[in-house]
Amino acid sequence: MADPSELKHTPLFDLHRELGGRMVPFAGYAMPVQFEGIIAEHGWTREKAGLFDVSHMGQRFLLGPDHETAAKALEAVTPGNLCGLKPGRQRYTLLLLDNGGIVDDFMVARSPDPDDEGSLFLVFNAARKDIDDAYLAERLPEGVTLAAAEDRALLALQGPAAHEVMARHCPQAAELSFMGVRSAAFALPQGAVDIHVSRSGYTGEDGFEISVPAERAEAVARALLAEEAVRPVGLGARDSLRLEAGLPLYGHDIDETTSPVEAGLAFAVAKARRESADFPGAERILAELAEGPSRQRVGLRPAGRAPVREGAQILGESDALIGAVTSGSFAPTVGAPIAMGYVDRAYAEPGTKVQLAGRRGSEPAEIVAMPFVPHRYRRSGGKQSGAA
Amino acid sequence: MTTRYTKDHEWVRLDGDTATIGISAYAAGELGDVVFVELPEAGKALEKGAEAAVVESVKAASEVYAPVSGEVTEINAALEEAPQTVNEAPEGDGWFFRLKLSDKSQLDGLMDEAAYKTFCEGL
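^ inputs. structure came back:
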């Protein structure tokens, strides 16, 4: 385990301690794994709203002379249609190796403000940001640069009550629809603070990600936590929430050996890019799209009550090894253990019966469709849905 | 009945020559929400220090070792339906199993409540 004294702190470290967060090392940072308890925090996020500190993630500005130049530079290393990214919109994309493996999965956002022309806002995984920086440094053309926004914190407010809470503090943010982004003024007693906010997250719930200058982060967090509907949530529940939502976690469910098609992320390979076939790994990825990948990421429901963990083998007929579990946990909203993993394509159909061989021997499980819990994103804009 | 504790955070409570065994409140707190407990079968002979049970929290699995040698006489079957009892009452209704002791003197090497408290404070 890492020496605690060498761990980095986010701008909310002191607040986590004050709130009773149990701090653990994660990607070089001291982060709260839980406050009240993972199951309680998970349930609260699904029913009300959870506040997550995700400041360990890598916030970056990709800077070019104009949108097309910056977007083209990023398209050279991703399969997304980023030239077509409209002002005020965000997209999920993948940094790819030449063999089609995934370097990182991340969000890319284009500000609606004409003054930000040529700038894209990226959010990398904490454990990958240094690798991403090095990879991009090698591949970016002259005139396009990557700048770390290390002086900013990132908060995620997730859950069905996120909308009404946000509407009180930052009405402009509450008007965003799913994957919309903008700059906005977040009201605070000591004076408003400018935030970059997107309507997104990684829990399957409606919600927001709020990028805020580090020195104002605690004030923003305290203002949100003062709301009755908002409680702090740690990384433990963040993991169980994203697993229920069927969302892959880098380093577990996707890595440099998995392709977007194997990982079930073919939606991130844009139609125009399939035609131009000009992204890293295009040969492998287009062949997998045409012929099907040899293995696929699937959801798993163990028959018993015991959680199945990462690394458990997946066995098919006659106990043949057909894959491995990449994430597994007890799923609080489902009320049962769930898992995801990779299996040979012949076994990927939902309803297929398999065996999972872990530490306590082998037990039956079924391949199931994901997500395990339906997504509740607000696609039609802040004012329309009746959920709030 | 006095309760004794191991450095692995199991507790043992002796009644006659039967010992009830569970995990300490400290251990339950460290594990977080318990979602599954795998218990030994009644009749199984356990050697002191052998793996006796597995307790699974949302995040991870942990082994529970037999603090003393003996034969399993009873298991807490209620934990199958209600594993959260381990968090709610770790040193009461959240007990794991009972052993008929083969050597009572093994208890002498375990910590009493005060010594265990000091031990946990030093962790």
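The longest strand of chain B covers residues 51-57. The beta strands of chain B are 3-5, 10-15, 18-23, 34-38, 45-46, 51-57, 61-65, 70-75, 97-101.
thumbs up if we can close this ticket
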